[in-house]
Amino acid sequence: MKNIFNPVYRQEYLKGYSSGLNPYLTIDDTKNEVYAFGFCQGREEYEKMNGKVVYGIPQLIVTNKVLEDFLLAGMLGMNINADGYNAFQLDIILKWYQSGVEKYNPEQSEYLQEILAENGIELTQ
Description:
Blueprint: H1 7-21, H2 33-50, H3 64-75, H4 87-102, H5 106-118
């Protein structure tokens, strides 16, 4: 592969990577080697969290942001709603949630609820 600090190389790689994260897209054979490498890396990232594309595209897509939200919910001792996720995704989500539960601090949760209440935000359980 070429120098990753080359802006042109990096731009093509990122285009491929973002295309690979979209399960509805397939690799464009007319693109160059760098784009193809980025696409493969993006597809691997997608499949690591959502399962193989050949097994179908799930109703809801898991991203790093979604996993971080479940981790935070576990850290704050909040209930989660996992409806719409498939078994593969639930396995990943539960690992992140459990990691958050292990770091749960009831005092932190109470402190956050006080701050939210002061700002007129109510949490439903």
